[in-house]
Amino acid sequence: MFMDHLACFTPADLAGSTPPDLSAFRWRLLAQGDSWFSNSRDKLNAHANLLQELVFKGQTAAVNCAGTGNALSHMVDLESSADFVRLLSGPDAPAWDGVLLSVGGNDLIAAARTPAHDAAGNPIPLELRLMRRQTEWGPPSAGVARYFSEPGWATYAEYLRANVKHLLSLRDQGPSAGKPVFMHCYAVPMPRPAGAESNDDLGAASGPWLYPAMKAYGVPAADWAAVSRLMVFHLAQLLKGMAADSEGFPGLFVFDSTTVPLALAAPGSTGISGDWHNEIHLNHSGCFKIARAWSEHIEMVLEGKHLVPVPTGRKGRVK
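and the corresponding structure tokens:
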């Protein structure tokens, strides 16, 4: 069956002298997110924008409000996302068939990078960071969880839930009220000295991200990959838990990208390796693998063929 790539536009395209005719598309989506949706030139050249690899049976368009920089962006900052807010809930907002969100991953990385001490040398409380100092490590029997701050995770989880609820409330203030919001989980990065290129739109290199945090906290190199996996799987469980809470997070659909087999980057590598462009961003092959699976998930929901909850003890049915 022939599949069409997602047609990606920007808010600037809509405001241009010859705006695209969105009515010509079967599905019309609004997108916002972190660096996995970034429009930066070097990411597009590397085919490392997840949206670019989405494909659908019917012609589908998305207006992508994500930024152009390579630097870490935190959970959608609505003060600097005026286009997204306007297109989602403004007085002249179009009616979208769905919203694509790529959020939470960069916040997770930033939380992992929170140092043990502030600039003045004062200890940062455990509930404000994801990593434990060596004097706080649990017993070896706890495995790599001994390095992980559960109090810090609770803070992060509360923060993410509140932000996603706010985004859903914005959706319901506009003409797209009740339409599906699609989020993806993340893939497990290998902590390694592989930052972004210096020729990005900001003119400055960024990263690596997890690698210096693992070194700063003294985590043995043999455990780096497992610590990364622990954090990403925590995030996946959190996102899937929100999607399962149809009352608290109505119309939220989460695709578990941790189930997509990817080629890991080689430990210690400094550039493109496996399915990774750098330490935390996928390359063309990585985006291709996740996007093709996510596309199917999105289209099933748009067509009303997703699984719906049923009482315990019975299998899910297809609408």
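(Above: one complete record from the training split.) The two ends are 22 Å apart (CA to CA).
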